Amino acid sequence: MTMTDPLELLDIAGLLSDEERQIQETVARFVADRVRPYVAEWFEEGTFPRELAPELGKLGVLGMHLDGYGCAGTSAVAYGLACLELEAGDSGLRSFVSVQGSLAMFSIWKYGSEEQKLEWLPRMAAGEAIGCFGLTEPDFGSDPANMRTRAVRDGDDWILTGTKMWITNGSIADIATVWAQTEDGIRGFLIPRGTPGFTTRTIKQKLSLRASITGELILDGVRLPDSARLPGARSLGAPLSCLNEARFGIIFGATGAARDALSSTLDYAKTRVQFDRPIAAFQLTQEKLANMAVDLNTAALLALHLGRLKDAGTLKPHQVSVGKLNNVRKALSIARECRTILGGSGITLEYSPLRHANNLESVLTYEGTSEIHTLVIGHTLTGHAAYR
Ligand code: TGC
Ligand code: FAD
């Protein structure tokens, strides 16, 4: 007996519905045809091909779990499985889809006016308009409550000033959801590209998430009408609720990166011969492979459990933290361990594990660092918030 997909170990696919399996297979085929052959080149060049956006729209994965306005309206589990397959291609691809659907579109879908929804969501679902989500600032990442970006009233308008940092899709986005402090608390605003005073800069020299555009948003007295404000967003809870959506996709996505790293390593270990035997036949290699397969399968089961809770409408933010903390941590450790089995070959882009490991360094940090998710869980267990 031999296995190429390490997720076959516990027959997790047997827990999925026919529709969920079909959606997963469709996304996997797209990744095999349109991503895997090119992703090493994108990573090396530090680029994300914008022309992929309408293809992702056609595939139905942009705002996939939202209802109406041109969105597919699938279950949370189906959306998670799509994230898993996208991130098996590259975390940068899943990031694009997360930011578009779970952050930029979700913020409009949940907190926007009917006019804002009609103006942006159908085009964003089709991949004709790209969105970004600006919460983090140069001096405030884990602690967004203290953000410096300010929106002040000037007659009927708002004037926004500040800087947002590390913003996925920032410098290619047509529309930015930007969070700012007002005298009544944190509010969200939609800023279209080209608005006077609004500029962006691409962050270069990244060693991680290279097949993704990361940018800075600079707001220098940007004047906006009140109709640009997200009317339903009334506190920090609004952007944090958007993060739950994107963190959910990461719980599945990280297992995709780990699965891809492990399955390519299994193939390699079975064919690479040293001391006249395949390296897969050595006990030390098998211990690594077995431990990784156990971690991967338990991470996938956790993702599925949380997905079922989300579909039942009972998923809590601290449960999302359990999934994000565990699955990203495990995926990063799997990708690094896989690299050791590949020996010298593992340091090139010909094999995926080190690319995944480098990407997962960002995934460990964004959407709440592992320390922040640890403290969220600690808060839930003890009743004491230890952030401040
Ligand atoms: P705290 O006082 O605890 O909460 C303020 C208000 O927010 C509510 N809340 C939540 N609501 C929904 N979902 C959650 N997860 C929530 N967490 C808190 C809370 O109930 C409260 O509501 P109310 O009504 O009482 O006002 O806030 P705090 O300032 O003490 O901070 C808590 C902490 C540290 C957990 C939070 O600030 C946090 O999560 N920090 C991490 C920041 C972060 O994750 N940033 C991510 C930026 S976006 C990104 O990284 C995109 S990468 C995308 C990609 O490329 O894939
Ligand atoms: P800091 O908050 O300064 O943290 C530095 C270290 O201190 C971390 O280890 C952290 O865990 C630790 N720390 C902080 N506070 C505590 C505490 N209370 N207790 C213990 N340890 C603590 N943001 C967006 O808004 N939109 C995006 O689209 C986006 N995309 C991103 C893409 C990439 C590639 C990256 C790398 C980041 C992105 N981010 C985005 C920003 C990301 O969310 C932040 O980097 C993250 O929240 C951490 O903030 P920071 O980098 O300022 O680190």
Automatic annotation (TrEMBL):
Record-linked InterPro entries: Acyl-CoA_Oxase/DH_mid-dom (IPR006091), Acyl-CoA_Oxase/DH_mid-dom_sf (IPR046373), AcylCo_DH-like_C (IPR036250), AcylCo_DH/oxidase_C (IPR009075), AcylCoA_DH/ox_N (IPR013786), AcylCoA_DH/ox_N_sf (IPR037069), AcylCoA_DH/oxidase_NM_dom_sf (IPR009100), Glutaryl-CoA_DH_mitochondrial (IPR052033)
Gene Ontology molecular-function annotations: fatty-acyl-CoA binding; flavin adenine dinucleotide binding; glutaryl-CoA dehydrogenase activity
GO terms, biological process: fatty acid beta-oxidation using acyl-CoA dehydrogenase; fatty-acyl-CoA biosynthetic process
Ranges for domain Acyl-CoA dehydrogenase/oxidase N-terminal: 17-128
Record flagged with keyword Glycoprotein: no
Domain of life (superkingdom): Bacteria
Keyword ATP-binding: no
Boundaries of every Acyl-CoA dehydrogenase/oxidase C-terminal domain copy: 240-380
Keywords assigned by UniProt, alphabetized: FAD, Flavoprotein, Oxidoreductase, Transit peptide
Cofactor requirements of the protein: FAD
Domain Acyl-CoA oxidase/dehydrogenase middle, residue spans: 132-222
Family, as annotated: Belongs to the acyl-CoA dehydrogenase family.
Name of protein: Acyl-CoA dehydrogenase
Highest classification ranks of the organism: Bacteria, Bacillati, Actinomycetota, Actinomycetes, Micromonosporales
